[in-house]
Amino acid sequence: MDNDLKPICLVLADISGYTNFVKENAKVWNHANIVINTLLETIVGKLQKELVFNKFEGDAALLITHSNERQAAILDCLFLAMAAFENKLKELISVNSCNCKACNGIHLLRLKFVFHYGEAIVHCIGKSTEVSGLDVIIVHRLLKNHVPSNHYFLITSDVTKSIQLPRTEMWQKYSETYGDVGNIEYNYLVQKDPFNESKVNVVPASRIKILLAKFKKAFVSMLISLKIHRFSRDRSAAVED
Ligand SMILES: [Zn+2]
């Protein structure tokens, strides 16, 4: 067993959007798991170019590397993995023919990336590697934060000490204080909503119903006023005769 503290890059990829309602029966629960696993495999597949998969943690995946000079390359990988996630979401929606709550809610899923650099104790037990220590706790604590979105990149200042963030002006600087790990500074970048454009163009069925009812009402009142107008005109003509 190896108990040394080693430099480590830690990346947590966390999928959110499925609330407990989708797990209300076995079929929905099963389909939700298939969707989440497919998306996590897509993300991990992209990140494995620079990181080593460590473990799945529910709807999240933890990836690590002991390299202390690959932060810029890892960040590039996060952008690629975000794009792959969004493409896979759209693909899953386009091929879906199931009407269950999990399959109908794929468009609600979003991705959070937390990237931290620090030190960890590495335990190698057989083929599996367990990492522990303060920095491993920090990367998990950072999933609870004040970022006003659930689709973003969060990079701690321990990472940005050694790299320059791309499009610096787009990133927001912030910090969180946690009881057990203290104050953690980070930069975050909110990713554009992948369905923003379609949302603008789609008029919900309930709205169409309301619009049709309004149109019908306006049409009926127009017909009535036209009839009244004709009636008064015919009457005036009759009086004049
Ligand atoms: Zn389904």
CATH class categorisation of the largest domain: Alpha Beta
Low-confidence stretches: 199-209
How many DSSP helices? 7
**Radius of gyration in whole Å, from Cα?**
28 Å
| Ligands present | zinc ion
Cα separation of the termini: 114 Å
Q: How many domains make up the 3D coordinates?
A: 2
CATH architecture of the largest domain: 2-Layer Sandwich
Fraction in helix: 40-55%
CATH superfamily of the largest domain: Nucleotide cyclase, GGDEF domain
CATH topology of the largest domain: Alpha-Beta Plaits
The major pleated sheet works out as: 8 strands, mixed
Q: How many extended strands?
A: 8
Average pLDDT works out at: 87
Which class best fits the helix and strand makeup?
A: alpha+beta
Instruction: Write the element-wise H/E pattern from the N-terminal end onward.
Output: EHEEHHEEHEHEEHH
Strand content: 25-35%
Shape: elongated
Question: How would you explain this protein's 3D organization?
Answer:
There is one protein chain. The chain has 241 residues and is an alpha+beta fold. The chain has two domains: 5-195, Alpha-Beta Plaits; 203-240. The protein has seven helices and eight strands, in the order E-H-E-E-H-H-E-E-H-E-H-E-E-H-H. It has helices at 26-47, 71-95, 101-104, 134-141, 157-160, 196-201, 205-240, and strands at 5-16, 52-57, 60-65, 110-125, 128-132, 152-156, 172-178, 182-190. Strands 1, 2, 3, 4, 5, 6, 7 and 8 form an eight-stranded mixed β-sheet that branches. Strand 7 (172-178) and strand 8 form a beta hairpin. The radius of gyration is 28 Å and the shape is elongated. Residues 31, 98, 100, 102-103 line the site of zinc ion.
